[in-house]
Amino acid sequence: MSVYNYEPIMRKIRAWIDYDKHAPKSNYYSNPQEHDAYRSTHDLDCILAGGDLNADTIFSLWLPLRFVLVRLNGYLTLRQYGNINDKIAFLEAIADEAVLRQLLPDENETVAKLIRLFDLGQQACNVMILKNRSMQFRGAAPYYDYMPYFLSECFAPGAFSKYFQGDSDLTAWIRRQKLEMFFDGAIARSQIIDLAGTGQITNGVPDDINLLLDNYIGILEQRKARMHAIDN
Q1: What does the alpha-carbon distance between residue 212 and residue 219 come to, in Å, rounded to a whole number?
Q2: Predicted TM-score of the model (pTM)
């Protein structure tokens, strides 16, 4: 019997598949109202933020899952389940707890951390409200949702700095969103923490996956505690 509860990962995999399956099939620009209505009521970020379309995930859960699957199994083994770059088809192939347990083995320290991250990652502590929905292109290349890179580009003259009226406006937004724990001291570009341990704020692909998972978990735990303290 499994010593781990894989439910947080299974729940997210099912949610990814369900969202894709039922999403509007039309081009977004041909019917933005339909797409926005669907996202506001079906995307977990929006749901946790009361339907706010400016809501966005702080830490993408897909990339840590992918990193761990590749590190523990290798691409050759994973090809038995399809092309990992074809996200939804691949997830459908592994959306079974027996398969997941085989790919993410019991009593593995990294698997335990991944499960904890998936638990926290589906809570409000993993959601921020962007200044502008256009900032969601942070999920594409070269940023790939890596928060240190994203935050560094929010400071002038970075790619996202145009959404702020100077660094003082950015600092105020960071405080409102309770993102101070991404900085080692002062809120400044030079103080952003290297969560992946790569030595480069622009590189979120870790050599040590446990370091990345520990850092992600630590930040979400801090943020959850702060949100709870304010609510009470």
Answers
A1: 11
A2: 0.95
